[in-house]
Amino acid sequence: MCGNVTTRVLHTPGHTPESICLLVTDQTRGPEPWFCLTGDTLFVGTVGRPDLPGTVEQSARDLYRSLRRILTLPEHTEIYPTHFSGSACGKGMSGKPASTLGFERRFNPFLALGSEEEFVAAVSRDLPAKPAGMAAVLRGNQGRH
Predict the structure, then answer these.
(1) What pLDDT, on a 0 to 100 scale, did the predictor assign at position 145?
(2) Cα–Cα nearest to 74, from 32, 21, 24, 23
(3) Residue (of 123, 25, 132, 43) closest to 80 by Cα position
(4) How far apart are CA 92 and CA 116, in angstroms?
(5) Which of 61, 81, 94, 98 has the fewest CB atoms within 10 Å, i.e. is most exposed?
């Protein structure tokens, strides 16, 4: 807590096993969350890719479940992802740097998929090549240089 602002950490595995989102509430605005820093879990117009550090199918299932948790938040919750178009962390990212959960529920094609099986198939299909040096990046993230 910092003054009237609280931040809650949500563990949202899928893009990576250790992925998190930060849910921010400003009590002067009200008791509901104001915005969510969605990291590489939810982007504007797409979701994080599930194939970088782990097995694609299990990571896609984790991502589906993480997104379902995020989607329980109010529609007016603003989302601020880590990246927008041009990043290798997702396919089909918008150039918009922010959105709302209501907008994403309506227009993000991955959030419109009805079942976990449909989601896993869709996010696992047509993945771009992994970025050069990805293995070294993952080792560094895990403290194994």
Answers:
(1) 61
(2) 32
(3) 43
(4) 20
(5) 98
**Within a 10 A sphere around the Cβ of 72, how many other Cβ atoms?**
7
35-39, 85-89, 125-129, range with greatest mean pLDDT: 35-39
DSSP 120: H
pLDDT in tens, 73-98: 999 999 999 976 556 556 666 778 89
Beta-carbon contacts of residue 114 (< 8 Å; ≥ 6 apart): none
Three-state SS at 138: helix
**Which CATH class, in words, describes the domain spanning 5-141?**
alpha beta
Domain boundaries, the chain: 5-141
Q: Is the pTM of this model over 0.90?
A: no
- Give CA separation, 67 vs 10, 37, 134, 143, in Å: 11, 13, 24, 28
| Across 8-25, average pLDDT | 94
Closest residue by Cα to residue 36 from 104, 113, 110? 104
